[in-house]
Amino acid sequence: PQHVVLYPLVAKSLRNIAAGKDPLEGQRHCCSIAQLHDHYSLGYPDLDELQKNPQPLTFDIELLKVEAPGSYQQDPWAMTDEEKLQAVPLIHKEGNELYRQGKVQEAAAKYYDAIACLKNLQMKEQPGSPDWIELDQKITPLLLNYCQCKLQCEEYYEVLDHCSSILNKYEDNVKAYFKRGKAHAAVWNVAEARADFAKVVVLDPSLRPVVSKELRSLEARLREKDAEDKIRFKDIFSQ
Q1: Angle (nearest 5°) at CA 49 between 46 and 53
Q2: Fewer CB atoms inside 10 Å of the end CB: C or N, the chain?
Q3: Of 10, 5, 12, nearest to 42 (Cα)?
């Protein structure tokens, strides 16, 4: 066994990565010795104890998988800005392929990674600047794809939040209105759903048949719910 002085800091970074966070989250901008000072907490009691009382460590390494040469992909946090820009179209394509295969959760994760790359770049730009807007216009279709996955996973409130954020910036985005309308309908926000579907038809009249189908489905669900409620209330009052 070897004495590993900096292991607590490495372990904290690895745990952040596993949780989908920035590996440097919470670390102060100072030297390693200052990081290890006994008044500094890493946020994990076991790592804090190891930091205060260093000891030899033995590591058991488990081989999880073997990847072919050239197939390894860096996590977004580890990429340079240029690598992020180059990776986004590839990640987007992978997400689309997974979606076509019916692997919706996996596709959503890909879209999320692509969005994260662009959001990271966007944070470095002045809001409203040409570069910021260009990045935002790349984020929007990815976010709509992500929302489509979330609709199928029945995570409707996340769809409502993301589509509303898009429409706050792009008031004529038909896809955002349509997906938000479906999410509203799913959680029984009937008036809001009808309003969003009406907006879809105004912006793109060719979608009227699709919207009519969604409205018929909503009305059928409402009739079914009304019948169930009548039976339920009848049973309650008859007791």
Answers
A1: 140
A2: C
A3: 12
- Domains of the chain, by residue range, sit at 6-52, 74-153
C-alpha 100/C-alpha 90 separation (Å) is 15
Tell me whether residue 35 is exposed, middle or buried, using C-beta atoms within 10 angstroms of its C-beta: 0 to 12, 13 to 18, 19 or more: middle
Helix (H, G, I), strand (E, B) or coil at 4: coil
pLDDT value of residue 95: 97
Contact by Cβ (8 Å): 9, 32: yes
Indicate the burial class of 185 (C-beta count within 10 angstroms; 0-12, 13-18, 19 or more). buried
* Structure-block tokens of residue 146: 């992500």
What average pLDDT does the chain have?
A: 86
Q: Which two tokens stand for residue 211?
A: 């919207």
Among residues 95, 11, 92, 99, the alpha carbon closest in space to that of 59 is found at 11
At the second CATH level, the architecture of 74-153 is: Alpha Horseshoe (1.25)
- How many residues appear in the chain? 239
Q: Which residue has the tokens 């996590």?
A: 75
Comparing CA positions, the residue from 35, 60, 30, 62 lying closest to residue 47 is: 35
- pLDDT digit string, tens, across residues 191-211: 999 999 999 999 999 999 999
**Mean pLDDT along residues 63-88:** 76
pTM: 0.69
For residues 225-233, average pLDDT = 79
Q: Amino acid letter at 78?
A: A
Q: Are 98 and 106 in contact (CB under 8 A)?
A: yes
Q: How far apart are CA 30 and CA 27, in angstroms?
A: 8
